[in-house]
Specification:
The chain is 23% helix and 27% strand. The chain is an alpha+beta fold. It has a five-stranded antiparallel β-sheet with strand order 7-3-2-1-8, with helices on one face. Strands 4-6-5 form a three-stranded antiparallel β-sheet, with helices on one face. The radius of gyration is 15 Å and the shape is globular.
Amino acid sequence: MRLPLDVVLRRGVIFLWTRYDKLDDPALAGQTKPKFIVILSGSPRDDPLVYILTTSEKSKHAEHPFPADLQHLPAVSCDFLPVDTLIDVGDAGQLEIGRDEFVALYESDAVVNKGELDASHLAELMAKILASARVARRFKRILTGA
């Protein structure tokens, strides 16, 4: 049985969006694919909800122009991640969804709760976001409540 969204929704929770359509790969234009997202919003009542995408680690990431902005999540760190995964924290604050729309996706199983980052990975994610020169100061203030 699925827990109510207000029980599971908090910063660091990971959902699998089963048919994500905001893909940035031109080869996938007009298509959908499953994507893991990490919630950055601090409260289940936030509207909109802010999230960040994960991506499977690939050799192309070795040439990333901002390597300090990449957070590595080994597949063994989360039993639901099938491969080594990266989060590009420089994208933090750029993706959001209305709360009502997210609730509808959750209730229709289009977004599935898979787990959450452990405390050390969440702390690392937050530190990297706050240190990234690519993340807007406005979003950093929202994250810290300052």
